[in-house]
Amino acid sequence: AQSVTQLDSQVPVFEEAPVELRCNYSSSVSVYLFWYVQYPNQGLQLLLKYLSGSTLVESINGFEAEFNKSQTSFHLRKPSVHISDTAEYFCAVSAYQAGTALIFGKGTTLSVSS
Amino acid sequence: EAEVAQSPRYKITEKSQAVAFWCDPISGHATLYWYRQILGQGPELLVQFQDESVVDDSQLPKDRFSAERLKGVDSTLKIQPAELGDSAMYLCASSLRLNTEAFFGQGTRLTVV
Fold this sequence. Notes:
The structure holds 2 protein chains of 2 kinds.
Chain A: E1 3-6, E2 10-14, E3 19-21, E4 23-26, E5 31-38, E6 44-50, E7 56-58, E8 64-68, E9 73-78, E10 87-95, E11 103-104, E12 108-113
Parallel strand pairs in A: 2-12
Antiparallel strand pairs in A: 1-4, 3-9, 5-6, 5-10, 7-8, 8-9, 10-11, 10-12
Chain B: E1 5-7, E2 10-13, E3 19-24, E4 31-37, E5 44-50, E6 53-56, E7 65-68, E8 75-79, E9 88-95, E10 103-104, E11 108-112
Parallel strand pairs in B: 2-11
Antiparallel strand pairs in B: 1-3, 3-8, 4-5, 4-9, 5-6, 7-8, 9-10, 9-11
């Protein structure tokens, strides 16, 4: 079975500061990894994904995440945040085999203030 | 852009009543998921369909919850009877096939009073 641990429940930062949201996973098999973002009373939107290939993946709005197999981590980073990045962020994992749904972490609330 | 449609967006019901949620996945997506998200928590899988077949319903409280996906397209999740602890966001998601990224609907916010 797989599990996800998001190490910070809340991360407050000032606008234009860098941010890192930490995610560790546990699995006995190879995995796919995802970051989703959720705004209040909305569904989840896919931010970025790691399926295979380059371990550094990027989103269109400046976020990036790096798959580190030895550390079983998939931390999310952004060099300069905006007020509009304030949201809940969820890390998710699925096993590299058919039939396994996404398993989510408990989420990290990113609060960006001016 | 194709989206996962869910209705209703909000539902208030009294405990012991029956309630149902509907989901229409992105066209062509064979895999459909129902997740429950309690406030302040991550989504937890209730049931997963591949076409019209249930792949995983191990976390579905089958004494009161039921889900179906007749014809392998849209899906209905039912709770009968509803309990206070069922208050949560119910999220439907679909993916092109098993094990690829899931696309989520806006969710149904259920409040049981």
